[in-house]
Amino acid sequence: MLANLFQRMRGLISGKRLVISIPMIWLFTLAAAPLLIALDFSFSQMDIASVASLTQWADNTLTIKLNLGNYLFLGDDPLYFKTYLSSLKFAGTTTLWCLVLGYPFAYFMARARAHLRPMLLMLVMLPFWTSFLLRIYAWKTLLISNGLVNNALMALGIIDAPLQMLNTPFSLTIGMVYAYLPFMILPLYANLVKMDTRLIEAAADLGASPWKTFWLITVPLSKRGIIAGSLLVFIPAVGEYVIPELLGGPETIMIGRVLWDEFFSNNDWPMASAVTIVMILLILVPMAIFNKYSDGGQEGEKT
Amino acid sequence: MKNLFGRSWLIAVYTFLYIPIVTLVVYSFNASPLVTVWSEFTFKWYAALAHDTELTGGLVLSLKVALMSGLMSVFFGTFTAFALVRYRKFRGRTFLASMANAPLVMPDVIVGLSLLLMLVTVQRWFGFPERGIFTILLGHALTGTAYAAVVVMSRLREFDTRMEEAAMDLGCKPWQVFTLVTLPLIAPALISAFLLTFTLSFDDVVLAAFLSGPGSTTLPLVIFSRARLGLNPSINAIATAIITVVSIAVIASSIYQARAERRRQREMAEAYAQAN
Predict the structure, then answer these.
(1) Among B8, B109, B168, which would you mutate to test the A interface (most chain A Cβ atoms within 10 Å of its Cβ)?
(2) ipTM
């Protein structure tokens, strides 16, 4: 009887509970709680000295003041709407280009000879390991008006005078595609390399042209890879700050930069929080899809 | 035909990926301070690095943060991975999975701002923590945990749990099973996870910008503030130094891992051959 009780006590503290509660507490404190606090801040207002919180406890009464001012301001000012829209547009363009460049790349990589594949993969990973910031900075060197790209184009006689490439939508897109391409290639490759090539042979045996086989067999089978890769590019690209700051210009307004300025230049924390909350709402649906398709979220799913 | 097309596509994309890196390296040896015009070969920017206390100070701080963040990420990432892979059903599993996934894709500005707001709130209540190395570390360890969890999870999925059962049958206590059987078997994944999260921390600008305080300027923050102002030859020199170290480390570790994998497979094959 007593031994049984001891065993049950031990069962309560050991093993499963401990393994689950450690990451649960850690991630809740650092991932979930901050978002709730940002939500709280977004309903508050900037006072002279500090930020008045959403909930206040005074004289034994709990007052909850929902200050919608920040959100009303967000809705009122067409600039914010335009910025969100343009962020979505740039993120979408980036995703599309990454897919166009990355899919055939991952496909050919997966179909390369088996002993070559680890090296090909390492060559994709290598730029990914070297500083992202420095690689974006390098594009500044390349695209500046007297930079390598302009010089090369002029030497080839394609253009007569240097083109303004830096600080334009062009330079922003190139920088974003460059930075996010490995995030597209890696999940696609992981998916394509596991594909059962007998299905492709079967399609060929049944008389399908290589082109038709590709569209009817390979692409549908790699759906998961396409979705995972696209979301890994799209979601962070919406809020990208460093690339628009270094390579963007007056025409490339993005929400990450607006948030940054709201916070660091205007020191308006509640407004910055409201901008953040709206950004989270925008990426909520893509995030939910990502959760569904990524590894941790599913129970015993195969493929 | 298809082969030729495939090969040229691969080469074109690799060129796209490597041109900026090669440019950084080449121009780090350029004597002209105008980064885009080539004058003559020089080492002077490297010599100047040694006296650049802002950069060297940032480097030391970044290495410290990255080391600690790597260790913390592996610790918490391993627990996250175990919880998600070993226990298929428990209350809050979906919640844990989405919290572990969120930092992978969530834009850095969101993570940085919300973490800062929380830390400021906590500080208002308890007078702790001051913005600085500790708060940067918390931010990096959070994103690191998510990445480490992905790496460890993929190893745990292909893990043969019969090994643990065998150890248990032979009388091991649960913690002995973990330290003597599980840990050595997942060690390669833990090392990869450490290297990845170390690099992520060493690379990060946005979280550090939100979470750093006076006197805690990491190397990326120094580089970023210079890059914002324009082109600067000191960046090329530090970039080349970083690229060299990282390339050697990545190539060495991939060769090592390939060898370890081959050895493991050979030993397995021998063991099976003996058993039969």
Answers:
(1) B109
(2) 0.86
